[in-house]
Amino acid sequence: MNIKKGMILAAGFGKRLMPLTNTTPKPLLKVGNKTLIEYSINTLESFGVNEIFINVHHLANKISSYLKSKKFKCKINIIYEKNEILDTGGAILNAINNFDDKPFIVLNPDTIWNKNYSKDFVDMCGLIKSKKDIAILHVVNKNRSFDKSFYGDFNLNNNILNRENDPKNYIYTGAQILSKDVFLDFNEKVFSINKVWDKLITNKKLFGFESKKSFYHVRNLEIYNELKNKFANEID
Q1: Distance (Å, rounded) from C-alpha 115 to C-alpha 131?
Q2: pLDDT tens, 126-135?
Q3: Helix (H, G, I), strand (E, B), or coil: what is residue 140?
Q4: How far apart are CA 80 and CA 72, in angstroms?
């Protein structure tokens, strides 16, 4: 299955990276020679996406100006959350009419993505068994995380995610493939994507793809500085 549309969630305040994010939105922070959002866009382009929707709120004009100044291969559409931030679930639901009945991919730009993830995303598509209720999360065992403070989000059994027992050994990396219909029963304006996931977990319909790649996530100021030192040059 070829996925041609994607979304990048870029509206957050980046509070854990203050004071940097008081003046620079988190997606525009640099690791190596590229911004976090540029890594995300390049990775989606490498996967084959040709149209990306990006929601913005905090320092929205800085993100939009940056995107307009760059020459990406794909079409970039900016969705302004002007009055309030809609959280992860609300943001996707707000953009949902831009997607057709085919699955789409959503990235969080605070993970340092690179083109090598494209193969993972292709393999994730291999888990799609039907045309309805598609929700596949990209996860890693927490021992692959550069940041060792992660508690863990899920357990994974036969590609099905659950939250039943501790310890939870798998971390959600910030990439997911979704279909529109998983949002059918949601009409809230502001809500977390966790509400959608929890409903799917109840029906054993939240799937996970385990990546074997190392996981680099810009979680806070300390980790950001460590990652800048680790990747003094841009990541391909």
Answers
A1: 27
A2: 999 877 889 9
A3: strand
A4: 20
